[in-house]
Amino acid sequence: MALTEIMSEEISMIQLHMLSSLYKEEPLEAYSGFLNPITTTYSDNGIVDAQYRVNQSQSFTINIELTLDYLRNISVIIPNPNEIRNYLFNNLGVEDLIVSICKATMEEFKDRAKLYLEMYKDHELNEQYLTLYVRQEHYDDNIIDVIESISEQYENEINEQSIWFLITTDFSSPK
Question: Labelling 135: which of 16, 76, 82, 148 has CA 20 to 30 A away?
Answer without folding.
Answer: 82
